[in-house]
Amino acid sequence: MRLNLRVWRQKDLADKGRMVDYSVEDASEDMSFLELIDVLNEKLILQGEDPVAFDHDCREGICGACSMVIDGQPHGPQKATTTCQLHVRQFSDGDTITVEPFRAGAFPVIKDLVVDRNAFDKIIQAGGYISANTGSAPEAHSTPVPKAAADRSFAAANCIGCGACVAACPNGSASLFLGAKLTHLGEMPQGQPERYDRVVNMVETHDDAGFGGCTNTGACATACPKEIPLDVISQLNKDYLAATVRGKRRKA
Amino acid sequence: MSFSDYTVGAPVVDKAAPDGPIETRWERRKFGVKLVNPANKRKVKIIVVGTGLAGGAAAATLGEAGYHVSSFCYQDSPRRAHSIAAQGGINAAKNYRNDGDSVYRLFYDTVKGGDFRARESNVHRLAEVSRQIIDQCVAQGVPFAREYGGLLDTRSFGGVQVSRTFYARGQTGQQLLLGAYQALERQIHAGTVDMYQRHEMLELIIVEGKARGIVARDMVTGEISTHLADAVVLATGGYGNVFYLSTNAKGCNVTANWRAHRKGALFANPCFTQIHPTCIPVSGDHQSKLTLMSESLRNDGRVWVPKRLGDDRNPNQIPEDERDYFLERKYPSFGNLVPRDIASRAAKEVCDEERGVGPTGLGVYLDFADAIARLGRPAVEAKYGNLFEMYERITGENPYDVPMRIFPAVHYTMGGLWVDYDLQSTIPGMYVAGEANFSDHGANRLGASALMQGLSDGYFVLPVTIGDYLASNKLPEVAPDAPEVLEAVNSVNERIDTLLSINGTRTVDSFHRELGQIMWDYCGMERTEEGLRKALDLIPELRREFWNNVKIPGTGAELNQSLEKAGRVADFLELGELMCLDALHRRESCGGHFRAESQTEDGEAARDDENFAYAAAWEYTGRGESPVLHKEELNFEYVHPTQRSYK
After folding, report:
1. What residue in A sits closest to B177 (Cα-Cα)?
2. Structurally, how many domains does chain A consist of?
């Protein structure tokens, strides 16, 4: 099948960038979307042009490296599917598909479809962990965890840190990402001692990084390839309020 | 002289290996290790390359201990290392099931599962440490599967008879890696670890015979930088991507290890690769990677092909008596649950007989119809729903209605840089951890053991043993303009300039695909003298063409993904040759290495303990030059070698 691609090309951060039209004549419905870009790139290289830069690694939907806004939607039209798992059979012969980077103030474009998501690491550094030095752990069965809590924790821990929630949000907020980590750790008994410091430090780092505030549009949870439930944002707000009442302030 | 020649050098000896009763060896080694004064630790600098389970855990733990750590990864964040994709679980000898498990049984199963080509001391330590790993991960908040009483759930995995595998749905690797990643981020925040993401190590710096730093390229700006340290840890994963198509992430590569090998680190058992039986088959020339379907599917799925050659009916129309359930037929006692190497080879055999299924003929059915009839669709959905959805996304076929098609794919490499008991390579001050080293899995890795080894090395072994080197060596500061440093930088720059100047007519990927095909055809599931010799002719030819005809657009001073790939493929083109030579010299079958010339009467792998009970550690002597083989004799004092049988 033949597919037309309108792809965002931007040489580097300073470049203004523009959409460029390409077509792939010999696309196969069994290709993944990234394989479609591979085919385009092989052609561009042989024509002496610069191939389209994009982030990708595991290509099985778990590492969170792949991004791309496809036809206006982060990771494209298929529900609960990362770009690397999206297949060309979701499109029809002759379609024109627009491909852009994840756009957000906190995710500057590095080149073409590659953006800098380092702000996510900064948020985790601020408190997205349980402090347990290697070797200091008690026997694993000394603290039972109710199954329901473990399951909710896992559902939130499922987040792959891709940033689709930010790209989907009209405010460029990372609240779903934040809420997912806070819920993952907050559901565990091991996560309690640092619970309120964690939420304050992570939220304030999030704000400093240039992510916007949450206005509950829910676009994030719709775009999330791992279907992180929207209620993790309620958890975030609840914990943040409780922390404020306790007078928690960010550590220097 | 052709590359298929090699010379045999002096044996390589593991000087760090303790002796005495095996259950006390690790205790005694820990006591024997010299300690670094806590006040001095912050002055000691350690480079850790790679942020998967081994590297992430090591960097975090060394940071907690007070060392000054620099951590490197090629991904945009350390959280994306490929450990994240491991599905099944992690073994640990906790014996929570009271089913007779013990450290000794895990040790025994691992030595036997590795087909008696791993070191007993290392494997016993791995089994001991496995218990601490679970404690550590639970303390970090890893959301393992739990039972209603709140205690940890386990399952049996990979053909062992006890339930010792801890898991977090089908995403155990992800959850364990996020635990290590979060511990690492905590140390970055604390200032003990400097993180260099989107940086690729391109050279090792050796000064006065000791590893003292690396040369790295910033993949965004192209800047080449040097990083000096007192010790270097490589935790850079496996080299399965030499086959082009594998279950590895696209970026997985051998470059860091190969650069170290070229500078003197011995490379052990490179031909020991694991081919996983349950992957989604190749669908066309565009294929860029292969996707694993969890091994757990074989608990309920039945593997079959049509009995009749050329039977291309819809599988649901092929009556029961015209199907060949070949695993159940050949291995009545283990059936569909035989170990990975055996299941893979059996699938290859029926495809060689041209009874394979699907458009390419390279596939076999994995059929859930019986399980659905027996358990009901909801039960099957609860167990495997995610995997069925993933299969449907990729193939467009619904496995509830038609049998899945599966085919073996390259998954893991047991070989790697040679290390002693302390995980130190033959270059003093350079340590190797996780899949990147060769030490614990012998010729075949058991399911759910990769995560165990990565975390064992990273959290518990390396942070202890590296102190011995640091405390017992005087390591004067290396000047940034020392001749060895400048030489390393120059060689990196020259190599990049050469690659960019070729401006030929073929893309990097086209060379990589061709190399992968050669490796798959001649150094894959079945290896023969003739095939390996052929590969040893084809690879140098392809390498010559690569260096004369590769086309890489752009410059070195920018994000240039073609250039990144070219450097990696150039190293794969050298590694592939060594793998074939190693496979050629090992005239026995063992684990994942099947030599057609060495099989029993009924077609099973025949080991040759008299001649090959050693690890083959190869010394580099120059590109395309004959390497030198150093043997490390393997002694089995506790687990006596027997022929594996799953009949």
Report:
1. A63
2. 2
In this complex, the residue of B134, B249, B459 whose CB is nearest that of residue A63 is B249
- The mean pLDDT value for B337-355 works out to 91
Which of the two residues, B611 and B170, has the higher pLDDT score? B611
> Could you tell me the two tokens for B215?
């040369």
Of B138, B171, B283, the CB nearest to A137: B138
Residues A23 and A122 in one domain: no
User: Three-state SS for B614?
Assistant: strand
Per-residue pLDDT tens over the stretch B376-424? 999 998 888 888 999 999 999 999 999 999 999 999 999 999 999 999 9
Q: Is the confidence at residue B142, as pLDDT, over 50?
A: yes
Which of residues 561 through 590 in chain B touch A, CB cutoff 8 A? 561-562
User: Taking CB atoms and an 8 Å cut-off, how many pairs form between chains A and B?
Assistant: 219
Instruction: Round to the nearest angstrom and report the end-to-end CA distance of chain B.
Output: 45
- Give the CATH number, domain containing residue A84: 3.10.20.30
Q: Are A148 and A222 in the same domain?
A: yes
| Interface contact A111, partner B, CB < 8 A | yes
Cβ within 8 Å of A, B 153-182:
168-169, 171, 174-175, 178, 181-182
Residues 83-102 of B with CB under 8 A from A: 84-85, 94, 96
Whose tokens are 């990372």? That residue is: A174
**Count of C-beta atoms within a 10 Å radius of residue B10:** 8
Active site residue B340: yes
Q: Residues B469, B473, B475, CA angle at the centre, nearest 5°? A: 115
Q: Quick check: A147 and B150 CB within 8 A?
A: yes
The one catalytic residue in B25, B117, B340, B527 is B340
Q: B478-506, pLDDT tens digit by residue?
A: 999 999 999 999 999 999 999 999 999 99
B221 touches chain A (CB under 8 A): no
Out of A65, A125, A184, closest to residue B189 by CB: A125
Cβ atoms of B79 and B249 closer than 8 Å: no
Sequence-ordered strand ranges (E) for B438-596 = none
Same-domain pairing of A221 and A124: yes
A86 and A125 fall within a common domain: no
Angstroms from B626 CA to nearest CA on chain A: 35
pLDDT value for A248: 83
What is the average pLDDT across B425-442? 97
Closest CB from B135, B148, B553 relative to A45? B553
Would you state the pLDDT for residue A252?
54
SS3 of residue B304 by DSSP:
strand
Predicted local confidence at residue A251, as pLDDT:
63
- Predicted local distance difference test score (pLDDT) of residue B382: 83
Residue B263 CA to residue B210 CA, distance in Å, equals 11
Whether residues A104 and A159 fall in one domain: no
Positions in chain A short of pLDDT 50: none
> What would the two tokens of residue A131 be?
């402090």
Asked if the model's pLDDT at residue B1 lies above 50, the reply is no
> ipTM > 0.95?
yes
CA–CA min distance B275, chain A (Å): 18
Q: What percent of chain B has pLDDT over 90?
A: 91
Task: Give the pLDDT band (50/70/90) at residue B2.
Answer: low
> Residue B333: what pLDDT?
87
Q: What SS3 class is residue B226?
A: strand
- Is there a contact between A59 and B289 if contact means CB atoms under 8 Å apart? yes
Answer whether residue B3 shows pLDDT above 60: no
| Partner B contacted by A64 (CB < 8 A) | yes
Measure the CA–CA gap between B283 and A88, rounded to whole angstroms.
13
> Are A121 and B84 in contact (CB < 8 Å)?
no
> Cβ of A118 and B394 within 8 Å?
no
| DSSP per position, B420-460 | -TTSB-SSTTEEE-GGGB-SSSTTSPPTT-HHHHHHIIIII
Please determine, for residue B145, whether its predicted confidence score (pLDDT) is greater than 80.
yes
Nearest-CA distance B286 → chain A (Å):
6
Q: Which domain holds residue A52?
A: 3-110
